[in-house]
Amino acid sequence: MATTSCDVAVVGAGLGGCFLALLLSRRGRRVVVIEQGPSVPSAGADFLKPPGLRVLARHGLADLAGRHGLRRDTIRYYHDGDPIQECRFPDGGYLIRPYRDLVELIYASCAMEGVEFWFDASVAGIATDGDQVEELTLTDGRRLRPGVVVGADGARSAVREALGVDQVMTPYERLIMRVATVPLTAGVARLNRLYFSSEGWLAYLYPLNRDEARVFVGLPPEDDRAIFEDGIPVLLDQLKKFVTDSSDAFDTLQPAHWQRIKVSSLRVGAYHRGNAALLGSAAFACHPMTGMGMSYTLRDAEILADAIGDAAGDPVLLDRLLHARYEPRRDAHRQLIDYGDALAATFHDRAAYLAAFRADLHIFGESEVPVLQPA
Ligand SMILES: Cc1cc2nc3c(=O)[nH]c(=O)nc-3n(C[C@H](O)[C@H](O)[C@H](O)COP(=O)(O)OP(=O)(O)OC[C@H]3O[C@@H](n4cnc5c(N)ncnc54)[C@H](O)[C@@H]3O)c2cc1C
């Protein structure tokens, strides 16, 4: 089969891969995105926080992203049924928009810039010469010779594997996460509410759009087995112990389809080797309680696009720029992952959770001043 050449091959058409492809194509690079699925991914995050919205705004995408999404400015936290604190987001707050919608709109912008997408195409082999990736072979036999490769291919990244980068993936084993999409009720529409219990449960209820709500339930593995694996008649009894102000949603919860989500943290030893780099969940993963993965990924894509653009095809310069500009992102990510670990370890204990809570990281990301109020 024929071999195709391009400036940059991006493996994975999630938020990170699509956004990077868009930025690079706007800099005049020929970009091919390889995606194993038939389209952009359908499941993922719902919240885009202010740092991520600012990144989109810098590239003319914030209005588009916000047009069909919900804007909110508060999250109220509860412990054993009592409100314990509120986070207020200034300046337009955060955006609720299902992941697929957000990725699709960046994908549509990519299409206008001429980015090539190869769907139903998975990477079968990566040929290297020293620390340079030379060629990608796809499962359908096609070959791609890129100047630069970016692994934006999620937590089980084939690119990371091929580069031989050290990794530590740690599942949050004490907290099984389940999610359901249910009809929206008035109480859930009013406010985003995150409930914790001293028995190690959590429940997060928020509107997804005008008709639907999303409900996350986190619970200890022994309770998950008893409740979700043997039928769920006792689910409501458990939730009623600590979910108070959202009680009008109870009727919608029991018949819902509860999907299990695997949640792990991921720390890796390097974000690049030679002409290949890792982006998004291929590079780091933190507990979703931070709600910041997409914001950091969008900022990372900006930095990566600048480094690749400035290197202008010179592999030695690219390696230097990635060392200088992109590898330092590991420090910011490490801080976020540690923060997610602290939230996951303390939420059952009111005092410990409030002591661990870092509004600066949680609301604003890397270096801004928070507004935190008692409930
Ligand atoms: C439960 C949960 C909730 C979250 N909630 C939030 C939130 O509210 N706000 C927030 O900011 N962040 C949140 N996050 C984090 C956020 O989802 C990630 O930061 C973000 O999705 C990273 O984007 P990505 O492009 O790396 O990954 P992905 O969306 O995982 O994209 C990876 C793509 O690569 C493709 N792929 C994989 N392997 C191959 C291969 N070999 N060949 C070709 N293609 C391949 C996959 O099919 C997929 O399309 C959450 C995470 C979880 C787990």
TrEMBL record:
Keyword Secreted among UniProt keywords: no
One Pfam entry name: FAD_binding_3
Gene Ontology molecular function: any one: FAD binding
Sorted UniProt keywords: Oxidoreductase
Annotated FAD-binding domain residues: 6-312
A biological process from GO: 3-(3-hydroxy)phenylpropionate catabolic process
Statement: the UniProt record of this protein carries the keyword Oxidoreductase: yes
Signal peptide (UniProt feature, chain positions): none
Alphabetical list of PANTHER family matching this protein: 3-(3-HYDROXY-PHENYL)PROPIONATE/3-HYDROXYCINNAMIC ACID HYDROXYLASE, FAD-BINDING MONOOXYGENASE
UniProt name for this protein: FAD-binding domain-containing protein
Organism from which the protein derives: Nonomuraea aridisoli
